[in-house]
Amino acid sequence: MKKIILMLNMLVFSVSANAVEIQKLDTKVARSGLYVQQTEIPTVNILLTFKAGTIFEDGYSHGTANLVANLLTAGTETQSAQQIQQSLEKLASNIAVYSSRDDIKIEVTALADNVEPTLQILQEILTSSVFPDRELKILKSSVLQAIRQQQESPGFLAMYTARKEFYGEDNVKAYVSSLGTEKSIAKITKQDLQRYFKNYITKENMTVSVVSSLDKQIMEVLLDKYLLPMHSGSAKELIKPTPVTQTNWARVEKDLPQTTVLLYTKGVSRVSPEYYTSVVFNYILGGGGFSSRLMEEIREKRGLTYGVRSAYEYDLPYPALFTVTLQTSNKQAYKVENLIRKELDKIGAKGVTQEELQSAKNFLVGSFPIRLRTSDKLLSYLDIMQKFDLPLDYLNTWTEKVGEITLEQVNEYAGTFADDEVSFARVFVGRM
Question: Which domains does the chain have, with CATH numbers?
Answer without folding.
Answer: 2-154+161-227 (3.30.830.10), 249-430 (3.30.830.10)
